[in-house]
Every structure is written in C-alpha cells, then in structure tokens.
Design brief:
single chain; membrane; XK-related protein; alpha/beta; XK-related_adapter; 10% strand
Amino acid sequence: MTIRSTLWGRGGEMEEAVVVESGITEIPQSTVGCGENGSVVLVSNHSRATPPLSVVLATVLYCAEFICAAVLCASYHNNGDKIWMGLTITFVLVPSVLTQLTLTFIHRDLGRDRPLVLFMHLLQMGPIIRCVEALIIYCKAGKNEEPYVTITRKRKLKNGKAVGSPMEWEIGHSERKLAVHRNAFKRTAVIQAFLGSAPQLTLQLYATILEKYPLPPRVALMVISLISITYGALVCSVLAIQIRYDDYKVRMKSGAYLCMVMWRGLEITARIASLVLFSTTLTFWVIPVGLGNLLIFFFQPWVEFWARRASLPENVEKNFSKLGTTVVLCMVTLLYACINIFCWSAVQLNLADHDLLEKQPRWSRLAVYYTLRFVENVVLMMMWYVFQSDFYTYICVPLLVVQLIVCYGLAVVFMLLFHQFCHPARKLFKHNVEDCLRCACCCRKDRSLSQSQSQSQEDGVLVTEDAPPPDLTSQLGDRETDILEDTMEAA
C-alpha cells in the first residue's frame, strides 16, 4: 500500500514522499514538533520493529500446501490416477511460479548480484529464503542506532472516531525493509489463495465425492487450502480498509478478526460446496458457469476503463512499455476475477489510476454482489437437488441444501455484524447497517400507511385526520437519509 508521507529536507522544510507502510506500532513519544498550521505534531522514534508474523504465516501455508500436495501426488501415482495427479501438480506449480516472479519483481533481484536468492527461486523455495531474510532483519533491528528514512503522518482512531492532532512516526531502514517484505508476502498470499488453493480445494473435494473415500493426505490438503483461501480473503479485506482510510492509523481488534474469519470462512465454504455438488451431477454445465463468472469479472474493469475513455496509467514500472503495462494489467484483472468467483474481493479495480485500486469504492456493488451470488448458489443447489444421482441415498439431501443456504446467509450476517460493530472506522461512516434497516422499516410503514388510506377512500370511508408522512430526517439526525441507493457504507 502506498501512502503520502513527509520527508525532512536539508533546509528543515517538509517535502512530499511516497513510501510503503504496513503494520507499524506506536511507542512512547520522543520529540515534539510544530505542524504546518501551528498545531503540535508528535514525532515518535521507533527503536523496535514489529515481528513479521504475516511473512511467517504465509511461508508456513506455502510450505504445508506444497508438502501435502507432493504426498498426495505420490499416492495418486501409486494408485494410477494420472488425471488427478496432473491436475494437482498444475494447481501447485502455477501459483508457485507466479509467487516466485512476484517476490523477485517486488525486491528487484534481477538487477542485483544475488545468485543464491535467484537459485532458491528457481527451486521454488523463494518464500523460505525471503522469510529467513525478514527474520534476520527483525532480529538485528534496534541493536544499532540508525537514521530514519522518512516520516509517516497518521491520525489516531479510538473507538472508531478520529481523536487528537495528526501524529508522525519515524520509519528506519529496518522497518522499511520489513514493510517491503510484508507487502510482498501479502500479494503472494492472495495469489497463492485464489490461483492455487481455491482450485485445489475444488478439485480435491470433487475427487473425494467421486471416489467415495477421503484419503488422509487429501483431507489435510483440503484443510490447508481452506485456511489459505480464508487468509487471502482476510488480506483483501484489510487492504481495502487501509486504502479507504489511508489518513488514519487503523488497528484491528481480535473481535474484528474473529468476525472476519467467520464471514470469510462460511462464504468460501458455501460457495465451493455449491460449485462442487453442482459439478458432480451436471459435470459439463459447470464449465459455462465458471467461465461466465470469470469473463464477467475479468472484463468489468476493462469496460469501465473504456467507458471513461481513460488512458493507461503511467509509471506502473519505469522499464515497462505499453505492451508490458497491458500484460501486467491483464494479470491483475485475472487475479481480481478469480477472487470474485469464490468470494467478495473487497477491493475494486480502477485501471486508469496509478495504484490500480478505487479510492472511493461504490458500496452499492457490495449489496448487488451478495444478492446475485446468493441467488446463484440457491439455483446451483436446486439444480443439484433435482438432478442428483443415487450416490446420495444415505445423505439427507434437503437438509444439506438448507445447511449450505443457511451457511451463506450466516456469512452475510457476520459481514453485517463486522460493519456495524467491529469495523475500526465505523464511526466515520455516513450510514451504517442500523440506519439502512431503520430507513427501510420507515419506508415500509409509510408505504403500508398510504396503501391503507387509499383502500379506505376506495371503500367510501372518509379520513378526517391528515397524518403527515414520517420525517426521516428527525430519526437520522445530521446524517443523510437517501441511503436506499447505497445500501451500506463499509470497508
């Protein structure tokens, strides 16, 4: 994530700079300066970096999935299942190669003399050597005094409200290197989750249902793949919050993470189960369903790009030509489409912007996405229920259909609970879930009252009291009331 920060020049003036910031914690104040408008700005010196837990977690998931897939492929080879083995290897190697390219590209290793690192990437062990580098940087950080490279300015959020004056934190060399590692592994975690783990989980669940026997390595691979997909979806959600509230120092509480895990886990589980069960009955019809979803979400950013008559963003990478920029944008759009096939991406693409992401997302898309996805899942389950085979004789099929529908409904409920109670910037919303429900109830009452009055007039009953329509502004206070078009303001 790129943020606007300030850099102190030689003449004592503050200059604009663009730096990478991720997960920097606050420690006690060391210096007090004066802001541009004369207000006091606190400058904190960071002598201790935060541990790179996200780097370690992404590396552990990568290695665990790779090892389980290798053991499962050996089992497929011994049983003579060439098709399952080939597909399993494909869904492991494709995201692994993309992960190596992403890490090499972000750290710019091709222009540096680092033969050991490049050799480890060729062996598909790049995340391991990167994780070791991050841990070494973290262990050495704070032992020797080092000059800071930039100052980042943020406003604090307390209980969802902005408090105090903007504060500034110094970022040293070690923290900046760790931030680069964290951001690189966040990108690789999303690639691994939705280009590898999601297809892998779908494949192994489909094979388990057809073969009627859950192999232990296959079960382990499915569990790790589900954890990887959930973690990738969490990264997307946190990234969307950081982009939307870039001027604030956002901190997520444990309750918020728990609510997000339930939301994302239930959503992904219900979606993949619906696709797999549908494919077991109507095998060839799942191809147009999946391909249609992929094409819709792939071309949607490009259609908006052409409708705006915008030009390709410049300086995505200095050495890229227009052809190279187009290829990179196509890869980003492909990843965006793959995410939306399985769950809500939380971020929205803007191919005309340098950062490629929408800074002010249209939250009406959230309601449209979940409404259409819920309808699609119900249709897939109904089609599977109608055309199911005798294989499911010992399973209560209606109960399973209801469970999957309720599971996706619970995912939506946890999403609403997160936005209403657990979102770190919920007090900054123009409208929240409670306002939407209250306004919808008021409009329903108003509609029923007008219908009853018209029915009374049709029946010849004179209405003597001219009851005025309910004043929505008195209930919502200073907030805007026209929120039916935009269902909910969230992040």
